[in-house]
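We were asked to recover a plausible sequence for a given structure. The inputs and outputs are reproduced exactly as logged, with field labels preserved.

PROBLEM: sequence recovery
POSITIONS: 209
GIVEN STRUCTURE:
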Protein backbone atom coordinates (compact mmCIF):
# COMPACT_ATOMS: atom_id res chain seq x y z
CA UNK A 1 0.00 0.00 0.00
CA UNK A 2 1.57 3.27 -1.18
CA UNK A 3 1.11 6.38 0.96
CA UNK A 4 2.30 9.91 0.20
CA UNK A 5 4.80 11.48 2.59
CA UNK A 6 3.83 14.92 3.89
CA UNK A 7 6.00 17.69 5.28
CA UNK A 8 5.23 19.66 8.45
CA UNK A 9 3.31 22.20 6.35
CA UNK A 10 0.87 19.48 5.30
CA UNK A 11 2.04 19.41 1.69
CA UNK A 12 3.14 16.34 -0.26
CA UNK A 13 6.90 15.95 -0.63
CA UNK A 14 6.59 13.99 -3.88
CA UNK A 15 7.78 10.82 -2.20
CA UNK A 16 5.74 7.75 -1.29
CA UNK A 17 6.38 4.94 1.16
CA UNK A 18 5.16 1.38 1.04
CA UNK A 19 3.14 0.32 4.09
CA UNK A 20 3.26 -3.44 4.57
CA UNK A 21 -0.05 -5.24 4.04
CA UNK A 22 1.03 -7.66 6.77
CA UNK A 23 0.82 -4.80 9.27
CA UNK A 24 -1.63 -2.25 7.87
CA UNK A 25 -4.09 -4.40 5.90
CA UNK A 26 -4.88 -7.53 7.90
CA UNK A 27 -8.31 -8.69 9.01
CA UNK A 28 -8.59 -7.19 12.53
CA UNK A 29 -8.82 -9.64 15.41
CA UNK A 30 -11.26 -7.93 17.78
CA UNK A 31 -10.67 -10.34 20.65
CA UNK A 32 -6.90 -9.77 20.57
CA UNK A 33 -7.55 -6.01 20.59
CA UNK A 34 -9.90 -6.40 23.56
CA UNK A 35 -7.37 -8.42 25.58
CA UNK A 36 -4.51 -6.00 24.90
CA UNK A 37 -6.55 -2.90 25.77
CA UNK A 38 -7.85 -4.63 28.89
CA UNK A 39 -4.27 -5.41 29.98
CA UNK A 40 -3.12 -1.83 29.29
CA UNK A 41 -5.92 -0.33 31.39
CA UNK A 42 -5.37 -2.87 34.18
CA UNK A 43 -1.69 -1.92 34.35
CA UNK A 44 -2.63 1.73 34.94
CA UNK A 45 -4.01 0.74 38.34
CA UNK A 46 -1.59 1.07 41.26
CA UNK A 47 -3.40 -1.45 43.41
CA UNK A 48 -2.40 0.37 46.62
CA UNK A 49 -5.97 0.80 47.91
CA UNK A 50 -6.25 -0.15 51.60
CA UNK A 51 -8.59 0.45 54.52
CA UNK A 52 -8.16 -0.67 58.13
CA UNK A 53 -10.12 -3.60 59.45
CA UNK A 54 -11.02 -3.96 63.12
CA UNK A 55 -7.76 -5.74 63.96
CA UNK A 56 -5.72 -2.80 62.64
CA UNK A 57 -7.52 0.06 64.40
CA UNK A 58 -5.65 1.80 67.24
CA UNK A 59 -7.74 2.02 70.38
CA UNK A 60 -8.62 0.50 73.72
CA UNK A 61 -9.52 -3.17 73.92
CA UNK A 62 -11.63 -2.87 77.08
CA UNK A 63 -15.23 -3.97 77.04
CA UNK A 64 -17.15 -0.72 76.59
CA UNK A 65 -20.21 -1.65 78.66
CA UNK A 66 -21.55 -4.55 80.67
CA UNK A 67 -22.84 -7.60 78.85
CA UNK A 68 -26.40 -7.59 80.16
CA UNK A 69 -28.98 -5.26 81.58
CA UNK A 70 -28.42 -2.23 79.32
CA UNK A 71 -31.45 -2.79 77.14
CA UNK A 72 -29.31 -2.56 73.99
CA UNK A 73 -27.20 -4.98 72.01
CA UNK A 74 -24.06 -6.34 73.62
CA UNK A 75 -20.82 -4.71 72.54
CA UNK A 76 -17.31 -5.88 73.25
CA UNK A 77 -15.00 -3.44 71.47
CA UNK A 78 -14.89 0.19 70.36
CA UNK A 79 -13.15 -1.04 67.20
CA UNK A 80 -16.28 -2.84 66.02
CA UNK A 81 -17.39 -1.90 62.50
CA UNK A 82 -20.82 -0.91 63.82
CA UNK A 83 -19.31 2.06 65.70
CA UNK A 84 -18.06 5.28 64.20
CA UNK A 85 -14.28 5.12 63.92
CA UNK A 86 -14.31 1.33 63.92
CA UNK A 87 -12.76 -0.93 61.33
CA UNK A 88 -14.25 -1.55 57.93
CA UNK A 89 -15.83 -4.90 57.09
CA UNK A 90 -14.17 -6.60 54.09
CA UNK A 91 -12.36 -3.41 53.08
CA UNK A 92 -10.10 -3.12 50.03
CA UNK A 93 -6.63 -4.63 50.27
CA UNK A 94 -3.53 -4.11 48.11
CA UNK A 95 -3.76 -6.11 44.90
CA UNK A 96 -1.58 -6.72 41.86
CA UNK A 97 -3.64 -6.05 38.71
CA UNK A 98 -0.99 -7.11 36.19
CA UNK A 99 -2.09 -9.48 33.45
CA UNK A 100 0.08 -11.62 31.19
CA UNK A 101 -0.28 -11.78 27.42
CA UNK A 102 2.11 -13.48 25.04
CA UNK A 103 4.09 -11.45 22.51
CA UNK A 104 2.39 -12.87 19.44
CA UNK A 105 -1.05 -11.89 20.69
CA UNK A 106 0.12 -8.36 21.51
CA UNK A 107 1.66 -8.06 18.03
CA UNK A 108 -1.59 -9.23 16.47
CA UNK A 109 -3.52 -6.67 18.52
CA UNK A 110 -1.27 -3.80 17.41
CA UNK A 111 -1.46 -4.88 13.76
CA UNK A 112 -5.25 -5.12 14.07
CA UNK A 113 -5.43 -1.59 15.53
CA UNK A 114 -3.22 -0.18 12.76
CA UNK A 115 -5.32 -1.96 10.12
CA UNK A 116 -8.49 -0.45 11.61
CA UNK A 117 -6.95 3.03 11.40
CA UNK A 118 -5.75 2.33 7.87
CA UNK A 119 -9.27 1.37 6.75
CA UNK A 120 -10.57 4.57 8.35
CA UNK A 121 -7.89 6.52 6.40
CA UNK A 122 -6.66 7.85 9.74
CA UNK A 123 -2.95 7.22 9.18
CA UNK A 124 -0.62 9.98 7.99
CA UNK A 125 3.05 9.55 7.07
CA UNK A 126 5.14 12.59 7.94
CA UNK A 127 8.75 13.27 7.11
CA UNK A 128 11.07 13.41 10.11
CA UNK A 129 11.19 16.84 11.71
CA UNK A 130 12.74 18.68 14.62
CA UNK A 131 12.51 22.05 16.40
CA UNK A 132 15.46 24.26 17.27
CA UNK A 133 13.79 25.09 20.57
CA UNK A 134 10.82 23.25 22.10
CA UNK A 135 7.93 25.68 21.66
CA UNK A 136 4.31 24.62 21.92
CA UNK A 137 3.21 27.13 19.27
CA UNK A 138 5.48 25.43 16.71
CA UNK A 139 3.88 22.06 17.37
CA UNK A 140 0.41 23.62 17.23
CA UNK A 141 1.29 24.99 13.79
CA UNK A 142 2.18 21.45 12.65
CA UNK A 143 -1.20 20.22 13.92
CA UNK A 144 -3.01 23.00 12.05
CA UNK A 145 -1.12 22.20 8.84
CA UNK A 146 -2.21 18.57 9.11
CA UNK A 147 -5.78 19.50 10.07
CA UNK A 148 -5.48 17.90 13.51
CA UNK A 149 -5.77 20.91 15.83
CA UNK A 150 -9.19 19.80 17.13
CA UNK A 151 -8.59 16.05 17.06
CA UNK A 152 -6.80 13.53 19.22
CA UNK A 153 -3.50 12.72 17.54
CA UNK A 154 -0.72 10.22 18.13
CA UNK A 155 2.74 11.03 16.74
CA UNK A 156 5.08 8.04 16.44
CA UNK A 157 8.77 8.94 16.21
CA UNK A 158 11.64 6.68 15.23
CA UNK A 159 13.93 7.83 18.04
CA UNK A 160 13.55 9.93 21.17
CA UNK A 161 13.29 13.60 20.29
CA UNK A 162 13.14 15.85 23.34
CA UNK A 163 12.37 19.01 21.38
CA UNK A 164 9.25 17.55 19.78
CA UNK A 165 8.18 15.85 23.00
CA UNK A 166 8.58 18.99 25.13
CA UNK A 167 6.78 21.10 22.54
CA UNK A 168 3.76 18.78 22.61
CA UNK A 169 3.39 17.77 26.24
CA UNK A 170 1.22 20.78 27.20
CA UNK A 171 -1.39 19.76 24.62
CA UNK A 172 -4.08 17.53 26.03
CA UNK A 173 -5.15 16.02 22.71
CA UNK A 174 -1.70 15.15 21.35
CA UNK A 175 0.62 12.35 22.37
CA UNK A 176 4.20 11.88 21.14
CA UNK A 177 5.86 8.48 21.56
CA UNK A 178 8.57 6.37 19.95
CA UNK A 179 7.78 3.26 17.94
CA UNK A 180 8.91 1.04 20.83
CA UNK A 181 6.26 2.64 23.08
CA UNK A 182 3.39 2.01 20.68
CA UNK A 183 0.39 0.28 22.23
CA UNK A 184 -3.00 -0.89 20.97
CA UNK A 185 -4.80 1.43 23.38
CA UNK A 186 -2.93 4.54 22.22
CA UNK A 187 -3.56 3.71 18.56
CA UNK A 188 -7.30 3.29 19.05
CA UNK A 189 -7.59 6.25 21.44
CA UNK A 190 -6.34 8.66 18.76
CA UNK A 191 -8.46 10.04 15.93
CA UNK A 192 -5.40 10.13 13.69
CA UNK A 193 -2.05 8.33 13.84
CA UNK A 194 0.91 10.25 12.43
CA UNK A 195 3.86 8.00 11.57
CA UNK A 196 7.22 9.65 11.04
CA UNK A 197 9.33 8.16 8.26
CA UNK A 198 12.06 7.15 10.70
CA UNK A 199 9.62 5.01 12.67
CA UNK A 200 8.26 2.96 9.78
CA UNK A 201 11.11 0.51 9.24
CA UNK A 202 11.49 -0.41 12.91
CA UNK A 203 7.74 -0.58 13.43
CA UNK A 204 7.11 -2.90 10.48
CA UNK A 205 10.12 -5.07 11.32
CA UNK A 206 8.99 -5.48 14.92
CA UNK A 207 5.40 -6.35 13.99
CA UNK A 208 6.29 -8.89 11.30
CA UNK A 209 8.68 -11.02 13.36
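RECOVERED SEQUENCE:
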Amino acid sequence: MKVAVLDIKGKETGRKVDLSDAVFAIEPNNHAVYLDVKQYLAHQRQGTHKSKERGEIAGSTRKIKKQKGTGTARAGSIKSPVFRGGGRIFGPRPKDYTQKLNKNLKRLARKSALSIKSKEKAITVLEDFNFETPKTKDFVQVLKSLGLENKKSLFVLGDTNNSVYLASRNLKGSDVITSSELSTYKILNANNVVLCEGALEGLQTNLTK
